Amino acid sequence: MSPGIPHYYSSLAAFQGLFAQGNPILTYHKLGPRPRRTRLKGLYVSARLFRRQLTELRAAGFSSGTLEACVGPSAERRMVVTFDDGYASTLEHGRESLAETSFRAIQFLVADLLGRTNEWDRSTGEVLEPLMDVAHVRDWLAAGHEIGSHTLSHPWLTRLPLPAAREEITGSKKALEDRFGRPVVHFCYPYGDWNDRVRELVIEAGYTTACTTEPGINTTATDPFALRRITARYRSRNWKNLWTALWRGWKTQ
Fold first, then answer.
1. pLDDT at position 170, please?
2. Which residue segments constitute the domains of the chain, with CATH numbers given?
3. Are the beta carbons of 172 and 149 closer than 8 angstroms?
4. What residue ranges of the chain have pLDDT lower than 70?
5. Which of 40, 41, 140 is nearest to 98 (CA)?
6. What is the DSSP string of the chain?
7. Per-residue pLDDT, 244
């Protein structure tokens, strides 16, 4: 990230200059009220703040971009909105705001856990949240949005044997395509965990892009299988410390 740019996106003001230099992607996880005993509070964005963020972007002239175009020349005032994990709350609390502002978004789904909960967080004591079921995903697609793959079960891919990592990456693509009858060409690394071996498996599987958790914007020099994103969240005075805490927490799981 450029010096002086916050690690997290809350409003447009601090990011105007950065966004003019390339193609930005925003990352969301969960929308709506934050349950009691939530550990990773920064993964929640209220419905009101989500609406405000999209409305501000629209008023400033931003419209929806595509992941494919993020590695091309800077597309003036284009924004890609992504959601990781496929939480049902994003449909419940985000569908109306997306429609009102004419933004399209992509939801990265954990293919084997549709209609269940974020089981990968159970061991950490995190509050479990419902994930989209098949009907939810069909509603999402009918509203004009996209889906991508976030593996079969949300593992740390670099910690898996090669055959297991390949199945997580390839199997999730096939499962989603078979279930929803459309190509799935975008991938997102769970936890932002990837290396050259994992990247090659993503390419081998036939995806055209892959998203990381590396903060920043994208240009013609960006690897399409290492797209940078900026996480959206509520305003905090401790963005850097919170990012470090989240990363260390994930690394020790």
1. 98
2. 8-133+209-251 (3.20.20.370)
3. yes
4. 1-5, 236-253
5. 140
6. --TT--SEESSSGGGHHHHTTSB-EEEE-EESPPPTT-S-GGGEE-HHHHHHHHHHHHHTT-EE--TGGGGSS--TTEEEEEEEE-BHHHHHHHHHHHHHHT--EEEEE-GGGTTSB-GGGGGGTPPP-BBP-HHHHHHHHHTT-EEEE--SS---GGGS-HHHHHHHHHHHHHHHHHHHSS---EEE-GGG---HHHHHHHHHHT-SEEE-S--S-B-TTS-TTSB--EEE----TTHHHHHHHHHHHHHT-
7. 52
Rounded Cα distance, 148 and 175, in Å: 11
Greatest extent of the chain over all pairs of C-alpha atoms, in Å:
48
How far apart are the C-alpha atoms of 222 and 73, rounded to whole Å? 11
Whole-number pLDDT of residue 76: 85
Q: Which residues contact 215 (CB under 8 A, 6 or more apart)?
A: 1, 7, 228, 229, 230, 231
Phi and psi at residue 11, to the nearest 5° = -145, 170
Cβ neighbours of 102 (radius 10 Å): 11
- For the segment 81-109, what is each residue's pLDDT rounded down to a tens digit? 999 999 999 999 999 999 999 999 999 99
